[in-house]
Amino acid sequence: MSKYGLIRDVAMQLRLLQQSFDAFDEAAAARLGLNRTDLRALDLVLANDGPFSAGELTRALKISPAATTTVIDRLERAGLVTRTRDAENRRRVLVTATDTAREVERDIYLPVGEAGARALRGYSGEQLTTILDFLQTARHVQETQTARLSENPAPPPGR
Amino acid sequence: MSKYGLIRDVAMQLRLLQQSFDAFDEAAAARLGLNRTDLRALDLVLANDGPFSAGELTRALKISPAATTTVIDRLERAGLVTRTRDAENRRRVLVTATDTAREVERDIYLPVGEAGARALRGYSGEQLTTILDFLQTARHVQETQTARLSENPAPPPGR
DNA sequence: GCAGAAGGTTTCGAATGTCGAAATATGGCC
DNA sequence: GGCCATATTTCGACATTCGAAACCTTCTGC
After folding, report:
1. Where is pLDDT greater, at B155 or A113?
2. Mean pLDDT over residues A54-82, rounded?
3. Do you know which InterPro entries this protein is assigned to (chains A, B) (predicted)?
């Protein structure tokens, strides 16, 4: 296949991959009866070792402090996290994953990591290096374009 | 670097790439004053050549028919799409991108594609083949895992 | 041809998630 | 000790989504 064709295919597969990530998140949320924001919050709390403060969640999720409170409320009600005041700074609230959340992690997230690692073992070290480079390049492109959108003032629509 | 380390890095970069896609969508939505659902709908209408029917949008976006109606309402009010009855089947409503929407496409989406293609030109045909294979494999893993989540009944939480 | 079923979209009311602003509580500073 | 900054929560308002019912249009069987 021509290089031009390959490039087009890569772009298309990247798009499809994006969609498959999206579908996975959706399925995970449905399985837990959570919305996407709650799931992202749970994911953050699980991934981080050591608890997350409410404010950190607010920043990581890019939602308002008010919304964060209700996210934590819902996760707490679902038995997935606990709320404790930080002993060192009693203004802060620490969010900690419960054992139930760890079971969820084992059920949902660990298998993905394992399956992914298994699939990657089929590539040579050189190929993995190429893949890694590609992923970094793709991210760089996205970030540059995101910055372009954010920084430039929007052109007057309908100009 | 060890192969094991490379595999870990690939997993991490994949996660970061996902986040950068997300950030791009968010910036694009903010630039247009649309929510994410509306943006996805616009993207679909732009990507498809030939108009999208309301029902197709409902299925593609995985939202209710009622929600689709309001999505089209908002896009129409923003001057980005037009609603027309399908002449061949007057029950259906066809959604067509306007010229304004095409300007948006040129402003937002085309530059990403161009920057991406430019970046990919730096890879050899062999490398691109590896990348393409990797993307397909990654998608397959995600889809398999999504199916696992969807099909298996959820294990009783807090067992 | 026409009655009734099926298809496609919209309207309506209710539920949910998000926000900004104000309130509350704690910590740091002269 | 009073005052400003930090961290979270409460409150009321707004936007988005849904399910159910309503409304046309098309198809089917007779």
Report:
1. A113
2. 97
3. ArsR-like_HTH, HTH_MarR-typ, MarR/SlyA-like, WH-like_DNA-bd_sf, WH_DNA-bd_sf
Question: For B131 and D3, how far is CA from C1' in angstroms?
Answer: 60
- When the pLDDT of each residue in chain A is averaged and rounded to a whole number, the result is 93
Spacing of C-alpha B6 from chain mean position: 28
More confident residue, A153 or A90: A90
Looking at CATH, the fold of the domain delimited by A16-122 is given as: Arc Repressor Mutant, subunit A (1.10.10)
Query: Cα A106 to the chain's mean position, in Å?
Result: 17
Q: Do A112 and B6 touch (CB under 8 A)?
A: no
Measured CA to CA, the distance from residue A81 to residue A72 in angstroms comes to 8
Q: Is the pTM of this model over 0.70?
A: yes
Question: How far apart, in whole angstroms, are the C-alpha atoms of residue A144 and residue B8?
Answer: 25
Q: Which of B80, B90, B87, B91 is nearest to B41 (CA)?
A: B80
Query: Residues of B with CB below 8 A from A148's CB?
Result: 111
Cβ-count burial B32-49 (b if 16+ within 10 Å, e if not): bebeebbbbbbbbbbeee
- By DSSP bridging, strand A81-85 and strand B52-53 are unpaired
Please give the CATH topology (third level) of the domain spanning B17-123.
Arc Repressor Mutant, subunit A (1.10.10)
Q: What are phi and psi of B96, to 5 degrees?
A: -120, 140
- Residue appearing with tokens 């294990």: B155
State residue A49's pLDDT score.
Answer: 85
The pLDDT of B9-25, averaged and rounded, is 95
The structural domains of chain A, with segments of one domain joined by +, span: 16-122
